[in-house]
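Researcher: Let's do a round of design. I'm pasting the structure tokens now; please hold your answer until I've finished.
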């Protein structure tokens, strides 16, 4: 996979390490990196020629602590979702002048509202849902006299950002529970009743609670009333298959049903028969279905920045994009993921790069047919921008929940390219890179384990018939004969490179040399991949030195990323 910016021995940028450029050294040595300005930040310092630290002037890349935006953001939310209960059917009889004993005319109850979920491009955070905790659809309205049916309950749509993963934590489905219990009961009485007419069927006392009796009758009369068997009813919507798992990585054009409302009850005209011309009962609406879901937002960025705390990730994001993410000279300045967009057009001050992204994977759809070059070009779309995600810093032992843990890695999990940001002034760069890869590798394994467990769970048949005679002799879950291996390749297989930052600080050169040699060794296959994962991406491992705080060397990063993204 050729990179747009081929690796060269001139990887040391002259403005950072003039001594490495013998020919141009003298010219670059004259360059002053730091222009004295009126305002100075106490947080960052660079070396002056005398060796004493010189404060870096305050700028967009080195903002004063109040120069940052702190938007509301949440990437996790737990919701209890309730569909609407169905409205009750009505027991009513026609009344008018000279007709005091008219026919039954109770209306049906309205169905309960459904709850849907939809991923929409405008949303960026789950913070509103995280505060909400409960989502309910509207109740169905009860039926009324004069054959007036109740109104249907209002549907509710939960809108979430694109990139949200919905996982079920548990559900209560009264209708399915009842079906399950019934399927467990002896089939004998049901078989007997097949030959009997509907009216002769014995009343099922277990279902008594599903019936509504005429309010005007006495208790003794109520006891005498024989209710028929509940009629079978078709359902327009069925509950989602358990366990619910939705990966909303693309905008959903149609809302997805996650909780169907209960059916409305039937009014008394449904039960009129020759033997029972005046039914004094109607059915109640079905109870609500409830499901507890967890929403997890995995930001969709093309590039993920991974680094130790205080490495300079946010400063790099500010240097490459218009982001106003928080920067400070202390660990864990960033507490929430930030996304920035790198624009590739020729606007003033932006790099002009021609890049293409594949929009349709024709090779899959056309199978063995060979593609003409026209076809291939038609599937390429010009890339005008790409996005970068900056996440809170990782520390060694993050997988043991040290620091902020490594849960924020899910935001770079889907990135096409990983950029490891390493502070050249903060100890051995190779050791830092290894520590980062170790955490990333452990995270990938954990995720793959979770995916495997979910796949196993999805194979279990939770339906009412499962495990009963009706299903089959064997248990309905089918497990694969061999378990898929946890490879860790989901992350280690991605293209990656190192951004060696703070190159403007003194005594960083040797550190950078060592890092570069180590990465060359990985590319040549002499040194194993730092994650230790077999088959990890090692095609063109490189380190690009930058001084993000001065915006130097950052254009080169854009070119390199575009090369990796274009593949
Ligand atoms: N000299 C120098 N200082 C830098 C450079 N890049 C960042 N810094 C400084 O390093 C400090 C940390 O920068 P941040 O961008 O907040 O680092 P971070 O990796 O986002 O830190 P966390 O959010 O805590 O993980 C700030 O004081 C920056 O001004 C650089 O290229 N050169
Ligand atoms: Mg930061």
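Researcher: That's everything. Go ahead.
Model: Designed sequence:
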């Amino acid at each position: 996979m050729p990179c747009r910016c081929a690796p060269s021995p001139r990887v040391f940028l002259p403005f950072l390490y003039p001594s490495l450029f013998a020919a141009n050294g003298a010219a670059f040595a004259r360059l002053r990196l730091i222009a004295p300005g009126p305002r100075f930040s106490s947080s960052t310092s660079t070396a002056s020629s005398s060796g004493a630290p010189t404060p870096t002037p305050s700028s967009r890349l080195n903002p004063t602590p109040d120069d940052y935006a702190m938007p509301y953001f949440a990437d996790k939310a737990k919701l209890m979702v309730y569909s609407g209960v169905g409205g009750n059917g009505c027991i009513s009889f026609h009344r008018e002048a000279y007709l005091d004993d008219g026919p039954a005319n109770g209306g049906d109850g309205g169905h309960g509202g459904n709850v849907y979920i939809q991923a929409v491009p405008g949303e960026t955070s789950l913070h509103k849902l995280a505060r909400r905790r409960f989502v309910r659809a509207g109740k169905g309205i009860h039926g009324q006299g004069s054959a007036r049916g109740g109104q249907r309950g209002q549907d509710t749509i939960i809108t979430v950002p694109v990139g949200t993963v919905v996982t079920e934590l548990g559900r209560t489905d009264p209708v399915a529970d009842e079906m399950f219990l019934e399927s467990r009961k002896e089939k004998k009485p049901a078989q007997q009743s097949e030959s009997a007419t509907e009216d002769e069927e014995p009343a099922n006392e277990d279902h008594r609670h599903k019936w509504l009796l005429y309010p005007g009758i006495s208790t003794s009369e109520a006891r005498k009333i024989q209710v028929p068997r509940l009629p079978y009813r078709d359902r327009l919507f069925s509950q989602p298959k358990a366990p619910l798992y939705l990966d909303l990585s693309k905008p959903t054009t149609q809302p997805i049903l996650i909780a169907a409302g209960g059916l409305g009850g039937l009014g008394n005209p449904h039960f009129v028969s020759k033997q029972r011309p005046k039914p004094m009962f109607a059915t109640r609406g079905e109870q609500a279905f409830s499901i507890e879901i967890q929403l997890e937002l995995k930001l969709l960025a093309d590039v993920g920045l991974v680094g130790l705390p205080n490495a300079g990730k946010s400063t790099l994001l500010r240097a490459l994009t218009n982001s106003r993410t928080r920067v400070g000279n202390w660990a864990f300045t960033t507490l929430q993921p930030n996304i920035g967009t790198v624009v590739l057009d020729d606007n003033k001050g932006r790099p002009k790069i021609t890049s293409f992204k594949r929009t349709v994977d024709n090779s899959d759809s056309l199978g063995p047919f060979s593609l003409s070059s026209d076809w291939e070009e038609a599937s390429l779309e010009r890339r005008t921008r790409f996005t970068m995600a900056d996440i809170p810093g990782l520390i060694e032992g993050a997988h043991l929940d040290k620091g902020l843990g490594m849960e924020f890695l899910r935001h770079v999990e889907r990135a096409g390219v990983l950029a490891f940001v390493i502070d050249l002034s903060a100890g051995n760069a190779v050791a830092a890179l290894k520590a980062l890869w170790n955490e990333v590798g452990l995270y990938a394994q954990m995720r793959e384990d979770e995916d495997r467990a979910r796949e196993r769970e999805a194979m279990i048949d939770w339906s009412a018939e499962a495990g009963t005679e009706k299903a089959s002799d064997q248990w309905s879950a089918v497990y694969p004969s061999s378990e898929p291996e946890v490879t860790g390749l989901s992350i280690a297989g991605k293209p990656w490179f190192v951004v060696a930052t703070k190159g403007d600080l003194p005594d960083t050169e040797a550190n950078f040399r060592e890092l570069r040699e180590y990465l060359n060794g990985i590319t040549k296959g002499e040194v194993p991949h730092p994650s230790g994962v077999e088959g990890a991406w090692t095609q063109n491992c490189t380190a690009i030195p930058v001084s993000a705080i001065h915006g130097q060397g950052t254009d080169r990063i854009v070119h390199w990323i575009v090369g990796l993204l274009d593949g």
